[in-house]
Amino acid sequence: MWVMTALSLALVILRLYTRIHVIKFVGAEDHMYAWTFVFLLLFTIFIQVSVHSGLGQDFWTLDPSLSSDAIFWTYVANTFAIAGNTTAKLSMGLFLLRVVQLRWHKISLWILIGVTGATSTTLIILLWNQTTPVKTSWDPIRTPGFFRIQILPVSVGLGGAYTCLSSCIQVQIIKILTWPYSVVERVRFLLRRLSMVMHMVPTDAAKGEVHACSRHEPWRDVRLNQLPRLQFSQSSRAS
Fewest C-beta in 10 Å: which of 23, 56, 160, 226? Predict the structure, then answer.
């Protein structure tokens, strides 16, 4: 996780440097991009704290206080993971809003942004309120209670399915935006190939003429060499 966090930090620094010093413009999507790294850093920190408390070890061999702390800090880390996933998608959505021109593109992106925010907020609320009492979620041994909501199917349905759907929609919008440029590049490529072919046709014809001339040049040399002899024989007959 720390290697991934360090790599993300390098990418964030490069992006902000480019936007501030090269392009000289910082938009809302850049702020969301930076906040995404902050949430990733917090997620990594709290996962590390949870590991120190016993995450990854046998739950039944740990002291109840340690196991409770491990689960609690895992909940805290997952909260920042959900928030970071949201800000990452918001960064892409705000960037596309700056690029698109058609009205239905903007409406689709705003719907995605709104549903993304609502979905992430719902998941965070359900994460911390799935049991009664709330502390039963991370301390089931010392705090008896019952689960009101099974968070796993809800998180898979709202988080996983919607994440795949929104990512596919954003990819399709990017394809729609770049399609005219790809068509133009293909037309330019075909025109360049056609112009090369048109230039090669007269060149090949010229090569054929030169080759034909080169085939007849030895005969021309023979006639030129025989020309003085013919003139000499005619002058000797005249004398």
Answer: 56
